[in-house]
């Protein structure tokens, strides 16, 4: 059974030792403080496998990323850029994409260069091939 009295006391002590690790990130100043603490924490952990502070670092990283995603969203890439990026990441050629999707290679070339607009059919076929949402191409 959990001893909430001891847990509360320990948590208050942890908050006093490292407030940056536990306070909510609600402002740019909070983000800067949390990021600086995370860098220090990362240096402390280093390459140590199963370091006792690793989970704290992971939790703080998730909070930093959540704040950044909300306040500094990255707009989606243009469909042609998304296609080029996926092809490069997967190491596939236009010919391979064409063969796998049934889209003519000349069309793949035009889509990848931004000279042709993606249709819903293109988006579905490419989404299925790359394992991403068809919305990435629309």
TrEMBL record:
Q: Which CDD domains match?
A: HTH_XRE
Look up the domain of life of the source. Bacteria
InterPro entries for the chain = Cro/C1-type_HTH, Lambda_DNA-bd_dom_sf
The record, for SUPFAM superfamilies, names: lambda repressor-like DNA-binding domains
Q: Name one Pfam family in it.
A: HTH_3
Q: Which Gene3D superfamilies match?
A: lambda repressor-like DNA-binding domains (1.10.260.40)
What region holds the HTH cro/C1-type domain?
Answer: 83-137
- State a single Gene Ontology molecular function: DNA binding
- What is the official name of this protein in its record? Cytoplasmic protein
| Taxonomic path | Bacteria, Thermotogati, Deinococcota, Deinococci, Deinococcales
């Amino acid at each position: 059974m959990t001893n909430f009295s001891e847990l509360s006391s320990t948590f208050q002590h942890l908050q006093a030792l490292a407030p940056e690790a536990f306070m909510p990130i609600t402002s740019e100043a909070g983000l800067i403080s949390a990021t600086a603490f995370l860098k220090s924490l990362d240096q402390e952990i280093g390459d140590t496998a199963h370091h006792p502070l690793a989970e704290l670092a992971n939790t703080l990283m998730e909070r930093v990323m959540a704040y950044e995603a909300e306040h500094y969203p990255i707009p989606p890439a243009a469909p042609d850029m998304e296609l080029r990026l996926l092809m490069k990441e997967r190491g596939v050629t236009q010919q391979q994409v064409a063969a796998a999707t049934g889209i003519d290679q000349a069309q793949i070339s035009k889509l990848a260069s931004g000279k042709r607009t993606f249709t819903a059919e293109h988006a579905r076929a490419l989404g299925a091939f790359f394992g991403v949402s068809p919305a990435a191409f629309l």
